[in-house]
């Protein structure tokens, strides 16, 4: 799953407009941001098998990012950092942490059993990746529904919905590109980890100007 993860960011942005969008966009993929860094540095390992249905990733070694305890740590740390560094409200910080944890829950839905419940423990995953068409439908459906709520929220604040639509189109385009240009078979190299990281950073940077400002209320006529 890629684009579907951003549904959590959009849904929370609609519910809590004061949470900076870039923190939510980075947060929904924070676990994969860590994963891409760990792939690049050799701390975690994965490989690609194009013969698999749906996603070609074989994620055999990622205890520091995608195990349940690790996901909880990443989520709590993100919430605390948002509160301390950005001085956000407790509500906004908790929601940012929840967005981070949503990544693991959505991965549970689509991954093959590769998510550790605890170190060296059983691995879980409902395997929706094995059904590519339903998986894509779920992913795009989540993105569309959350995006509609986000767009409606922007309108209620006097902001245009077009930036939201364009950002979602960008995410869908990346998803399509990934479908038609799969990763070559074999272990993921450091360069591939860095390339994946660059995509997440680009999405985060593009989200920065999308917060905009509430439109000014018209002045009453004298």
Number of domains: 1
Order of helices and strands: HHHEEHHEEHHEH
Number of helices: 8
Mind telling me the C-alpha Rg? 18 Å
Query: What's the count of strands?
Result: 5
For the biggest sheet, the summary is:
3 strands, antiparallel
Poorly predicted spans:
214-222
Biggest sheet, spatial arrangement of strands: 2-1-5
Tell me the helix content.
Answer: 55-70%
| Average residue-wise pLDDT | 92
Kindly estimate the percentage of residues that lie in beta strands according to DSSP. 5-15%
What best-fitting shape do the alpha-carbon axes yield?
globular
Distance between the termini: 55 Å
Secondary structural class = mainly alpha
Protein architecture, described:
This protein is mainly α and 222 residues long. It has one domain (3-209). It is built from eight helices and five strands. A three-stranded antiparallel beta sheet has the order 2-1-5, with no helix packed on it. The chain has a two-stranded antiparallel sheet with strand order 3-4. A hairpin with an 8-residue loop joins strand 1 (45-48) and strand 2 (57-61). The longest helix is centred in the middle third of the chain and has 25 residues, at 132-156. The radius of gyration is 18 Å and the shape is globular. It starts with 5 loop residues before the first helix and ends in a 15-residue tail after the last helix. Residues 214-222 have low confidence and may be disordered.
